[in-house]
Amino acid sequence: MSNPMELVLKELSEIKSWQQEKMQEGLAPVHDEIKRMGDRLEAVTKGYEALRRERLAHMDNDGRMMVREGRFAGFDVVELALARNLGLSQIRGSRPGVSPEFLEDLAKARNGIKSVMVASGVDTTNAWMERCLKQRIDSLVVAGVIPPGISVFRDSLTNWRTQMLQLTRKALDSTTAASGDELVPTMEAAQLWMDVNLETKILPLFIQSPMPTNPFDIPGQLGDVNWYPTAENEQGTTTTVSTRKTTLTAYELKAGIPFSDTLEEDAIIALIPELRAGLVRNAAQIIDDVLLNGDTTTTNGINSDGATISKTTAGKAHWLLGFDGLIHQPLIDRTASKRALASTLAASVFNNNMLKMAKYASPGRRGDVFHVSDVNTAIAALILDEVETLEKYGLRATISTGELASIYGIPYIMSEQMKLAEADGKVTDSGGNTTGRILTTNATQWRVGFRRAITFEADREPGKSQTTLYVSFRIAFTERTGTRSTATHTALQHDISSVT
């Protein structure tokens, strides 16, 4: 297929050549010829304008819609939204630092992106999906081992693409088909969601469900069917299949980031990329943290043993979000799924977790089972006899790769959000935690829901001479059996010594 710009240039060249031929022949073009030439020039001009808009804002090589020209060149939809929120909050707060030109340039950049948010543009999210998958794989693949949950992550990406296409069709059927107003927030949310998912290690391993309502019920698998031998003309025996559902209840987390009045319009532009990177990193950390460490217990919780915390306790309040996380399941809910080692790390520790999980230790076709541990334990695992040297572990030996991809065929993930603990498996609030922990779980038995994806808004506070950026999301997390006290899909080994 020819380059669109080449076609435009060809049209202009043909018009110019025809005009020169007429001049050389000394013939004045007749009225009809002038009209045809004018129509062609008008068509070419429109084509050029369309191409210019595409260059202003279109999917780049990384699959993101980005501003190509002007003051906000290089900004994507998320960074434009941050700039817009911060700029408008400054104006609403009677802060003179933001000029009319700033808002004009911002509107021009945003309109440029909106102008290409049509069905064909959004449909190119196929490339966006593939980039996401590649980045996810590249960020987790260790020594050639594909990370767990890639098929789950692909399903989540497909859901986002479907939602964007649905909004596109809605826009095309409305009176504001070309405005892109309905699509901009969706693109912002999708880009933020993708960035956060690529930064997290735990979240993408689980099936993520949009939540049209809160709470939101998800039908569970049907119970087992009984099978009986039968013969010709013999009535078959039926089974009344049991049904169940998983209820997701979303809870909100919010953070505020204040800025002083030194944040003027030029500083806003310079600050946005760094601010966006920080927001993505912090959001990813906090999501993984609550999925692993969520605990609604205020006194002697699994993360604050020996203390009482509240929803206003800085650095700890997020654990009280409203649901209990992965570690809480074997440590508190079903204690038969945990084991205190009081010994050094060995390969058998991972195997013991799998034994406690029984049928749930089977990874299945999607590779849904994974091990996760704190950083110290993961480092200690590098020198296990079974994996350290080339003669025992081959080319993937940790002595050469410096990384341990899997144990007994189950992917192994190191998480900074999983902390060292005391001998009882809890993290003591006063410190002194020196023993490691290893958690193993089957991701199919957990479900993550988002009632609201990550959003942000800025608020100008003249009385304090500052602007505050608020970031929030609403997340739900639950295990799928419905009875945590008997669920065997998650196991924990704790009190692992010699990891500090």
Fold blueprint:
Elements: H1 4-25, H2 31-56, E1 57-59, E2 65-67, H3 77-92, H4 100-115, H5 119-123, H6 125-140, H7 150-172, H8 183-199, E3 207-210, E4 216-219, E5 245-248, E6 251-260, H9 265-293, H10 328-333, E7 338-344, H11 347-357, E8 369-373, H12 375-381, H13 385-388, H14 390-393, H15 398-401, E9 406-407, E10 410-414, E11 436-442, E12 446-461, E13 466-479, E14 490-497
Parallel strand pairs: 3-12, 7-14, 8-10
Antiparallel strand pairs: 1-2, 4-5, 6-13, 8-11, 9-10, 11-14, 12-13
Helix pairs in contact: 1-2, 3-4, 3-9, 6-7, 7-8, 8-9
Description:
It is a single chain. Helices cover 41% and strands 18% of the residues. The protein has helices at residues 4-25, 31-56, 77-92, 100-115, 119-123, 125-140, 150-172, 183-199, 265-293, 328-333, 347-357, 375-381, 385-388, 390-393, 398-401, and strands spanning 57-59, 65-67, 207-210, 216-219, 245-248, 251-260, 338-344, 369-373, 406-407, 410-414, 436-442, 446-461, 466-479, 490-497. The model has no long low-confidence stretch (mean pLDDT 78). It has a six-stranded mixed beta sheet. Strands 3-12-13-6 form a four-stranded mixed beta sheet. It has 500 residues and is of the alpha+beta class. The N and C termini lie far apart (61 Å). Among the domains are: 1-59, no CATH class; 62-211, no CATH class. The protein is built from 15 helices and 14 strands.
Range of strand content: 15-25%
Radius of gyration: 29 Å
How many angstroms does the end-to-end distance come to? 61 Å
Estimate the helix proportion, in percent: 40-55%
Task: Kindly report the spatial arrangement of strands forming the biggest sheet.
Answer: 7-14-11-8-10-9
Oligomer class:
single chain
The secondary structure category is: alpha+beta
Mean pLDDT metric: 78
Total helix count?
Answer: 15
Give me the strand/helix succession.
HHEEHHHHHHEEEEHHEHEHHHHEEEEEE
The dominant shape is globular
Largest sheet: 6 strands, mixed
Q: How many beta-strand segments?
A: 14
Low-confidence stretches: none
